[in-house]
Design brief:
Helix content: over 70%
Oligomer: single chain
Radius of gyration: 23 Å
Structural class: mainly alpha
Largest sheet: none
CATH class of the largest domain: Mainly Alpha
CATH topology of the largest domain: Rna Polymerase Sigma Factor, Chain: A
CATH architecture of the largest domain: Orthogonal Bundle
Number of domains: 2
Number of helices: 8
Order of helices and strands: HHHHHHHH
Length: 168
Amino acid sequence: MCAITAQYNDELRHIEYAVEKYSQMLFRICYGILCNKHDAEDAVQETFLKYMTKAPLFKDSDHEKAWLIKVATNISKNMSRFNSRNATENLDELRQIGIKDADRDLFLMIMQLPAKYKTVLNLYYIEGYRANEIAQITNTSPVTIRKRLQYGRKMLKLELERNDFDED
């Protein structure tokens, strides 16, 4: 019985050591993918759960570190995909920033676009500015603004078509 207890204690010490040694690094990696502190903490915790239950025998500490990084990265990517597919919005929060309920879905779709399209489409559709006004605000040429509106609309249309297709 003492041998089993000693082995258990050794494993526990090894897990504690790994958590101390790698948790900050893993958190930074997860945060870089998820851009959210709480999700990154969850991903690190999930990584160490897998470490305790499914870790292979490691050749050395570099192999162990590489395995942890790979697992943390995969967990974070999976969480990110899940979050983007199952986005939930806080209606009260959107109302607090001045988004009308009627504009909510459009606003949320616009927020998924790259920044240069997001800004232009938000100013045009949500805030009601004209292309020339947006050009002045953003210190960009009106031609560039119209092109960004055109490309942004195409992206929104593709997203709408994809969502309609997914619902069928």
